[in-house]
Amino acid sequence: PDPIFVLRKHVKDVTSVKFIPITKPKLKTKNLELNLENHLLVSGDIVGNLNIWNLERRRCICSIPKAHNHSILSIIHCEEKSQFLTQGRDGIIKLWDANTLTEINSLFSFNSTSNSSYGSNSSSSEILNIVKPLKSIDY
Distance between CA 17 and CA 38 in Å, rounded? Predict the structure, then answer.
C-alpha cells in the first residue's frame, strides 16, 4: 500500500522513532508557537540527529543536529512526565523535556566499543533509575 504521507528531513537512515505524549497542547520554540495534537513524533538517525515532528502539519518543528555523536539506538517515553530518553551508540543516555525540547541531563552509559546497551526493551523506569541520581529532578 502507498503511504498516507511521508516525512522528509533526515538525510541519512532513520534508526529510531517514537510517539511522545506531551502535557501542554502548545509548544513554544524559537519564538514560534505551534498547536499540537498532544503527541509528538521523535525520530533519530544514523548520524545522531534528532527531529521532532508535528503530525497535524506533517512538518519537522525542531531539529537537533548531533544530539548524539553516533546513531540514535532508541527513544523511550518517560511515562511519569513529558520527558523522553535517547540512547546513542556514543554511549550516552540523554533526558529531554518534551515540552521545551531541551536536554535536561545526560549520562555516559557504557563503553562505546561494547555492543551492550539499554535497548528499546528496557522500561523507562529502569533507565530513569540510572539517570535520576545525576541531577535532582522532580520525577
Answer: 17
58 to 52, 65, 134: CA distances (angstroms) = 11, 20, 36
| SS3 call for 67 | coil
Q: pLDDT tens digits, residue range 57-105?
A: 888 999 999 999 999 999 999 877 788 999 999 999 999 998 888 999 9
Sheet holding 50-54, edge to edge: 14-21, 39-45, 50-54, 59-64
Reported pTM: 0.69
* DSSP H helical ranges for the chain: 124-131
Q: In sequence order, what are the residues at sequence separation of 6 or more whose Cβ sits closer than 8 angstroms to the Cβ of residue 50?
A: 42, 43, 44, 63, 64, 67, 68, 72, 86
